[in-house]
Amino acid sequence: MSELSQISGTNDSAESVTTRFRTDKLTPLLLRFLNRLKQTGKSGHTISAYRNDLSIFCQFLVAEKIDPQDFQSHFQERWIAYLSSRGRKSQASVRRALMSVRTFLHFLVKEKIIERSPMLESKSPRQPAHELLTVRPEHYFRLIHTLSAKERAEDPKAIRDLALIQLLGECGLKASEVAQMRWSDILFEGSISDPQASLTLRVAGQNERIVKAHADVAATLWKLKEARQQLNLPASPQDKLFFGFLNVSRRLKSDGLHRHGVKFVVYEVCEEILGIPYNSESLRNHAILRWLELGISTQQVAQLAGYSSLNSLERFKIKARGQRRPKRQTKKQSSSDQKQPRTESKATGSPRPLGGTSNP
């Protein structure tokens, strides 16, 4: 008998699901699950996503009077409809919500809160393979050239935008990492006027790492600090790098930018200069792809980008070789392909596998 049934003091065989269901148990269980995620080192954004999805799921269970262990597959259509009524209509949102529910029910089984989870037998919905989003090299150079010209005119906004584009496109930082960066995370090496000068960035967060940057980035960040002081904004070691403007006239300023503000600035700058709405991920991917093309080892690139697994670089290596990402195959497709015979090429008579040529 599940813990939810025991605390209700009813008999499972005699009472209905409605009678033995206790809605007051869901909130403590959800908090317990979120605390476990925090203990395992999950990021704040991941925990927030789980909290949002599972809060809606708990509301659904209460409205439908369903015990978590009785959440059968035929309830999923009603669950998806309930998500849609709460504004979750995209395939990505539904897929993430299903995965969140599956993980939560697995946790309840492991903790012996409930006896079983019908979703244990179902597989997590697979994320579709997207093309690698990256800024074209000529577009990136145009961005830098245009912003550098405006920066030389002592435009504070252009200085901020140039520094932001460089940290994303040269150093491979995420929008959230750039938004949280403080002046204490930057170590200038050598004189700013020295062409050989550089700087070291300490990227905080879940994947803390050290990233080196060249003299151009160092000079831009130094001017960014001066621009903050000219705008009467603090620039102490604990202050954030990037400031924002709260209106078109730029008279109202903010000390920092949230990660969504960083993404908006990137979108706005790319749309204004290039006419293409590139995002922060495109700039970060540009940096990672360029590192691989320069011959830097995959281990070092993974460390610079903050990846814990080399598998995350597969799509970048495929892109660097000028290939298209292969389609994922199901087990039935892969087993049937292995049974198919090899055909001979008409030109050379050499065997080749069906479906295309193999890479050397």
Structure in a nutshell:
The protein folds into 2 domains: 3-121, DNA polymerase, domain 1, CATH 1.10.150; 137-319, hpI Integrase, Chain A, CATH 1.10.443. Helices cover 50% and strands 6% of the residues. The protein is built from 15 helices and 7 strands.
List the helices and strands and how they pair.
Elements: H1 3-8, H2 17-20, H3 26-39, H4 44-64, H5 76-85, H6 91-110, H7 137-152, H8 156-169, H9 175-180, E1 186-189, E2 198-203, E3 209-213, H10 215-230, E4 244-245, E5 253-254, H11 259-273, H12 280-293, H13 298-305, H14 314-320, H15 331-339, E6 343-344, E7 351-352
Antiparallel strand pairs: 1-2, 2-3, 4-5, 6-7
Helix pairs in contact: 3-4, 4-6, 7-8, 8-10, 12-14
Description:
It is a single chain. This protein has 360 residues and is mainly alpha-helical. The protein folds into two domains: 3-121, DNA polymerase, domain 1; 137-319, hpI Integrase, Chain A (Orthogonal Bundle), CATH 1.10.443. It is 50% helix and 6% strand. It has a three-stranded antiparallel sheet with strand order 1-2-3. Strands 4-5 form a two-stranded antiparallel sheet. It is elongated and about 70 Å long. The termini are far apart. Residues 1-21 and 341-360 have low confidence and may be disordered.
